[in-house]
Amino acid sequence: MAPKTRGARKREEGEDAGGKEAGKRGGSKKTQRRGKKYIGAHVSIQGGIWKAVESCVEMGGNCFALFLGSQRSWKRPALDQKAAAKFQEQRSLHEMDPAHIVPHGSYLMNCGSPKPDVFEKSQALLVDEMSRCSLLGLTLYNFHPGSSLGLITAEQCVKKIAGAINHAHQQVPAVVTVLENMSGQGSTVGGRFSELRSIIDKVRDQSRVGVCLDTCHAFAAGYDLAAEGGVKAMLDEFDQDVGLRYLRAIHLNDSKGKLGCNLDRHEDIGKGCIGISAFRDIVNEPRLDNIPLILETPGRPGFEYEEQIKLLYSLCKKPAAPHTRRTSATVRLLHRLARTTDLKHSFTGKLIQQPHWALLSDTHLVPARPQSALQAGTEEIKD
Questions:
Q1: Beta strand residue intervals within 309-373, DSSP E
Q2: Domain Xylose isomerase-like TIM barrel, which positions (predicted)?
């Protein structure tokens, strides 16, 4: 049987995020701390929502995204509290910061829909999924803003999206709603950073709204990440139009489509039209320190998430080791410490010979000759 694509696996995730009862927990494999860069992927919740943490760790990630339930239905079984407790236990065990876990909203939602029934169901699902975030101890919730379907103006669509967010904020405390930029396909809102800013401006509590930048979406919408300095230019424009203080996550995806194609077609890192140089710039961009960088690529045999995470970390520039110039006095001191001297053990009184530097590592070794004589020896080499 041919292996399923990652997209198919994601669509087939279970109806109940609680999943089956977990087996005995194995030993802890803590997430690796790699400086200020956090790289991971969108992981499955099959077998239990707590499995998402384990999947992230196994692939070498230290941040991740996940769905909170089935993508096929507007209504899902309530999240089991025992499953939620296991998730929090695993997150704590692997020392994962809630700010580096970014649940992804259902693709069924359209909080800008002009159709009353779809809008009402979308608003209810937004509240439900944010409530699940609270139960899991998570602070972020990422979703696609919405579409006018060509039946209302973009301004009217923006107003409806902001209204849904304000309603959800009233129903669910603390969780931050994270808007994702879009590719500009059809009548979707959010292809331009200015559209995201328009939504934010209409949110009453702007401390509870953020943005997730998707690299494929940005490129498809016309932001040229493939150009030299393209990543910096995009972030500069985002800072001007929206504000970097709102940036909560990055979705790392290459693009099957060309610049400005408006197509949401993800490709593996370095295999698409954006190219590897842009991703090198992203992982070395200091403004993205401590921001979760999350893969949503299709994957292929031998180049799945684990390999792509390794690739991205390999692109991180390692700071050069500080060069220390030794003075002539230091060099002579090192030579002197390499010589041996008569030492005796303070407990046994046994006379032994050790290098002078043994005095620094064994407190039971003391000079057989007076300490003043040893000090006098070191004073001889002052410049």
A1: 340-345, 351-355, 365-367
A2: 54-314
First vs last Cα of the chain: how many Å apart?
77
Contact 14/49 with Cβ under 8 angstroms? no
Closest-CA residue to 127 (of 69, 169, 185): 169
> Cβ distance 173 to 127 under 8 Å?
no
Q: Is 349 helix (H, G, I), strand (E, B) or coil?
A: coil
pLDDT in tens, 192-250: 999 999 999 999 999 999 999 999 999 999 999 999 999 999 999 999 999 999 999 99
In the chain the domains, ranked by start, together with CATH numbers, are 38-315 (3.20.20.150)
Token reading at 191? 């292809």
DSSP string covering 128-177: HHHHHHHHHT--EEEE--EE-TTTS-HHHHHHHHHHHHHHHHHHS-SPEE
Return left, alpha or beta for 186; rule: phi > 0 is left, psi -120 to 50 is alpha, else beta. left
The residues annotated as belonging to the active site are 72, 104, 107, 144, 180, 214, 217, 251, 264, 266, 296
